[in-house]
């Protein structure tokens, strides 16, 4: 009768341990899911930044094309008008190139930051996976020990 109570106690303890392990693993799975969402968000952000850079390059090409068209039209005007407009267009090109260069540098900095963050998240995911594997292994060992103990107790009954 005493061993039956012990066995029931052991079963309850094992069941509680099993439930704790299940809850612990569920929380870890939730955390991993959140990390995957963050990674996906960062990848989408990275892609959006790349699209912005391409758009800015296209805009610069369009502006340069427009400037060339303007230059052709001004050839028919007086030399003085042509020189003034040409100087203004060069300043505009320089300003646009400087703006584009600054934006492009900012985008590349953002890309590098996102790459570093992505690398950090990959490392964190790997560490969490290793920790989860160790935890699972540990609790599996604990469960096996409890199972063996239950088997011994059952055989004694």
UniProtKB/TrEMBL annotation:
InterPro entries: Ankyrin_repeat_domain, CC144C-like_CC_dom. Residues 79-131 form a coiled coil. Residues 2-64, 70-157 form the CCDC144C-like coiled-coil domain. Keywords: Coiled coil. PANTHER family: ANKYRIN REPEAT DOMAIN 36-RELATED, ANKYRIN REPEAT DOMAIN-CONTAINING PROTEIN 26-RELATED. It comes from the Eukaryota. This is CCDC144C-like coiled-coil domain-containing protein.
């Amino acid at each position: 009768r005493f061993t039956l109570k012990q066995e029931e106690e052991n079963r309850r303890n094992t069941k509680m341990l099993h439930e704790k392990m299940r809850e612990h693993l569920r929380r870890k799975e939730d955390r991993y899911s959140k990390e995957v969402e963050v990674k996906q968000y960062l990848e989408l952000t990275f892609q959006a930044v790349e699209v912005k850079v391409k758009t800015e390059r296209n805009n610069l090409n369009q502006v340069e094309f427009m400037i060339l068209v303007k230059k052709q039209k001004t050839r028919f005007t007086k030399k003085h008008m042509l020189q003034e407009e040409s100087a203004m267009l060069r300043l505009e090109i320089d300003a646009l190139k400087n703006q584009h260069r600054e934006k492009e540098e900012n985008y590349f900095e953002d890309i590098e930051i996102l790459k570093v963050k992505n690398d950090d998240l990959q490392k964190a995911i790997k560490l969490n996976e290793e920790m989860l594997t160790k935890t699972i292994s540990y609790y599996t060992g604990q469960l096996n020990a409890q199972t063996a103990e239950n088997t011994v107790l059952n055989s004694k009954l």
